[in-house]
């Protein structure tokens, strides 16, 4: 019985990586190829209809999960924003300057159940902005009476990689250029029993943020490249 084409392709590429890693071992971190990243500095405190809530706090994290996040990521940032209608969006960004091997992004599908949440739905989606579309994952989670819809994406380098194979291919691409891959998790959520409304608000929030930051920051956070930059 012939193995699936996808599995065969990945196996071949991983084998090639072993050879490539010997020829071009990662000598520099991707994070060192440009200006140092500071999440607190690059993410605006107000934009569009949204203002930062001073007390912040995007998620209660238990000590075991917090210790794991500290090992995986070099920077984390949690904030809460509110719009003029009083609707609140919780933002969490976690950046890691080395995404090889065990130091890999910790997806919400793992993180939320690890904190006692129930995961009732997970699906791929597209978040549209005026600078292009971002491929995202959308989850419906709950903890007792608390309903928390979640939208998130992962990046390796400056590419969104929400699927494990895409993530591995991005790591291979960077390894073959002699770079250690960096990456981040961008997550927004809201406490809302109406999942449809929550995802619409999260889309509006994210789209407005992407329009408020510089092209360089936008690419770093989401992989989006403005048409003027792409040309």
What would the keywords be for this entry?
231 residues, two-stranded parallel ribbon, alpha+beta, 8 helices
Summarize this structure briefly.
The protein has 231 residues and is α+β, with helices and mostly antiparallel strands. The protein has helices at residues 5-23, 39-42, 63-72, 108-114, 164-176, 195-212, 215-222, 227-230; strands at residues 28-29, 46-47, 50-53, 75-82, 88-96, 118-129, 132-143, 146-156, 159-160, 179-180, 183-189.
Would you give an account of this structure?
This protein has 231 residues and is of the alpha+beta class. The chain has one domain (5-225). It is built from 8 helices and 11 strands. The chain has helices at 5-23, 39-42, 63-72, 108-114, 164-176, 195-212, 215-222, 227-230, and strands at 28-29, 46-47, 50-53, 75-82, 88-96, 118-129, 132-143, 146-156, 159-160, 179-180, 183-189. The strands form 2 sheets. Strands 2, 3, 4, 5, 6, 7, 8, 9 and 11 form a 9-stranded antiparallel β-sheet that branches. Strand 7 and strand 8 form a beta hairpin. Helix 1 (5-23) packs parallel to helix 5 (164-176). It is globular.
How many structurally independent domains?
Answer: 1
What's the gyration radius in Å?
18 Å
Biggest sheet layout: 9 strands, antiparallel
Strand content: 25-35%
Give me the secondary-structure category: alpha+beta
User: Average pLDDT value?
Assistant: 78
| Contiguous uncertain segments of 5+ residues | 5-33
Shape: globular
The secondary-structure element order is: HEHEEHEEHEEEEHEEHHH
Report the end-to-end length measured between terminal Cα atoms.
Answer: 46 Å
**Helix coverage percent:** 25-40%
Number of helices: 8
The beta-strand count equals 11
């Amino acid at each position: 019985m012939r193995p699936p084409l996808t599995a065969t392709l990945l196996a071949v590429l991983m084998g090639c990586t072993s050879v490539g890693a010997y020829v071009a071992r990662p000598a520099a971190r991707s994070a060192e190829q440009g200006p140092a990243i500071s999440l607190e500095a690059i993410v605006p405190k107000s934009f569009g209809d949204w203002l930062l809530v001073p007390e912040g706090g995007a998620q209660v994290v238990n000590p075991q999960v917090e210790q794991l996040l500290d090992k995986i990521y070099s920077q984390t940032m949690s904030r809460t924003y509110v719009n003029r209608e009083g609707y609140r969006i919780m933002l969490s960004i976690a950046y890691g300057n080395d995404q090889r091997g065990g130091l890999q992004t910790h997806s919400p599908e793992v993180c939320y159940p690890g904190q006692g949440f129930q995961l009732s739905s997970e699906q791929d989606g597209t978040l549209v902005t005026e600078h292009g579309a971002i491929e995202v994952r959308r989850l419906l989670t709950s903890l007792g009476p608390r309903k928390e819809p979640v939208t998130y994406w992962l990046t390796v380098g400056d590419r969104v990689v929400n699927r494990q194979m895409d993530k591995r291919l991005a790591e291979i691409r960077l390894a073959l250029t002699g770079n250690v891959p960096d990456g981040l998790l961008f997550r927004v959520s809201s406490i809302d029993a109406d999942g449809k409304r929550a995802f619409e608000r999260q889309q509006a929030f994210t789209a407005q943020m992407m329009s408020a930051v510089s092209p360089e920051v936008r690419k770093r956070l989401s992989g989006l490249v403005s048409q003027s930059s792409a040309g």
